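Supplementary Note 3. Input sequence used for the single-chain structure prediction.
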Amino acid sequence: MRHSRVINHLGRTSSHRKSMLSNMASSLILHKRITTTTAKAKALKTFVEPIITKSKEDSTHSRRIVFSYLKDKEAVSELFREVSVKIAERPGGYTRILKTGNRIGDNAEMCVLELVDFNQAMLGGGEATKTKSTRRRKTTKKKGEGEVPEKPVKAVAVKTEKPVKETEGNAEAPAAEEEK
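The predicted structure, written as discrete structure tokens, is reproduced below.
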């Protein structure tokens, strides 16, 4: 029976689960959005939100506590420089889970876990970068198929008065004959 067992072990040992959540939290902080399974995203949400709350107070003590969880210097500096500035007024709920469907290989529920204040499309402050997409059919052409034949070019013969033949030792001979 599961009496009050609220932690999802994700089918891993304790050390494997802690290191996996630490790596995923670092990736989330650095990239602001990750794609993962729904079960891992829910576990990561409970792991990363207290860490983000700690980053609101920029002190040596809070940096050391956050580093003990993340074990990544770049992620800690990114968290305290950029993320904590944007979430300063937010009382909680720093992450959002957007379900994207099932994975093809094993039919696992997939989702996107993102930091709330970093999605420009949902904030409405600016448009997300829209790319112009043109749908074209890719065709694989074999040699000779579908090629436009080139127009035949007419050969024009140019007549010369005297054919000039040069030899290595006798390069001045034709010039000497013309002077005579």
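The mean pLDDT is 85. The domain at 14-123 is CATH 3.90.1030.10 (50s Ribosomal Protein L17; Chain: A,).
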